[in-house]
Design brief:
Elements (H helix, E strand, L loop, with lengths): L1 H9 L10 H28 L7 H19 L1 H14 L15 H10 L21 E2 L6 H10 L6 E2 L2 H33 L4 H16 L1 H14 L4 H27 L7 H22 L10
Parallel strand pairs: 1-2
Helix pairs in contact: 1-2, 2-3, 3-10, 6-7, 7-8, 10-11
Length: 301
Amino acid sequence: MLNSYRKFWQDYFNFKGKTTRKDFWSALLIHLLFIFGLSIISILLNELASGVLPDGFNVLSLLIRSYLVLYLLLTMIPTLSVMTRRLADANLPWALIFLNLIPFVGAIILLILCAIDKDQSKPVTVHHSKRFFPYINEKGNVTFSEAIKNYVTGYFSFDGKTNLKSFLRAQLFFLGLGLIWIGLAFLAQAIEINRIGQTTILSQSMDFGVRCYFAFILVPELSVMTRRLNDVGIAKKETFLIFLAGYSIVSLHYAFSKVTELSYGFHQFVLAKYFLFLISMVLVFWLISLLLKNEKNQDQR
């Protein structure tokens, strides 16, 4: 069962293979256990909270809920891919995956179709994985244009390695572009407020564009950081824990702020916020030191 769930993640972008009925239902069972488990924990924590004003239990409930949202977002693509492979194994057209667009009924019909056993006269297809995005493995001197190309083509490429020079050049270009955009948006907003006393569609559009830009580069930033950390010897599991810690800090900060607002300032969590700030600073500086670390054998490659 655990092996089936491991395949569920390994074939994240594999829409062309086949998945047996046993592997599909085993992976789906563990997937649903995660969802229901996190949901139940969140509900129980809400029940333990005060019925008058939100308190610390509500903070923990919001944190668990944020983990649930993150898990659902991360599993959207592999869920579609494993269903596509299951349909292929049952000799059904892959286009049936669009039944998911029909609320409630479509998902039920699709699960019934996924329960159909394959035609026994067909040859058995063993489990395999196909790479959907290029494998980025930078060695030696990488030019500026190559660094930008690898950043874009490696949008979802969490395998391989990115050397220090390429990483810095990509950050200089994409984060620098974002900072310039932010500066222009603030300038446009300041000019509009100074002249007409309010913002117009111009500054609002620029502000929306900034948000879309940083949302767009979020995934390649995570992927290039993963490759960079892999280049200095940090394993994927450790990298995932680092990212999860960062996500937890952001979620806790949101939960503290939300509960403080809903309790009309009665619960302010001053000490907890102070420790959270210290932990976040330690994590940020530690991550930066890892990203800027030179690999011992980098000059020999």
